[in-house]
Design goal:
The chain has helices spanning about 10-20, 45-50, 70-75, 105, and strands at about 1-5, 25-30, 60-65, 85-90, 100. With about 110 residues, the protein is α/β, with parallel strands linked by helices. A five-stranded mixed beta sheet has the order 1-2-3-4-5, with no helix packed on it. Helix 3 (about 70-75) links the parallel strand 3 and strand 4 (about 85-90). Helix 1 packs parallel to helix 2 (about 45-50) and helix 2 runs parallel beside helix 3. InterPro entries: LRR_dom_sf.
């Protein structure tokens, strides 16, 4: 499933409640170059999806953060989880628009 981040956490909660067979989820930024817009999806939305979608194994997420504790929760809720592509969006004022950072503790789950 592919959605824009404007779906918000409530939209991801609805996905978690209504799509138990979901295996892949991609959340794209509606406007990655707009620094003034607060992102509508947080890690809480992904945790909600993981509670309702145990078959989830692949997530692509353009985000501002993804704490290790939330990665661990997602992995524990989705035993077949194999891919988390979490691209941290820092806005256009930073030297790099997209930056990948490791989440060693979360990935170790």
């Amino acid at each position: 499933m592919q959605v824009l981040d404007t779906v918000g956490d409530k939209g991801l909660e609805a996905v978690g409640s209504n799509c138990p067979s979901l295996e892949e989820l991609c959340v794209f930024p509606a406007d990655p170059f707009d620094d003034d817009t607060i992102q509508g999806v947080t890690e809480a939305g992904f945790v909600a999806v993981s509670f309702g979608c145990p078959r989830l194994h692949h997530v692509l997420y353009f985000c501002q953060q993804m704490p290790n504790v939330d990665v661990s929760t997602i992995v524990q809720n989705c035993p077949d989880f194999t891919h988390l592509l979490s691209t941290l969006h820092k806005g256009t004022n930073s030297p790099f628009l997209y930056k990948l950072q490791t989440t060693n503790k979360g990935i170790g789950s």
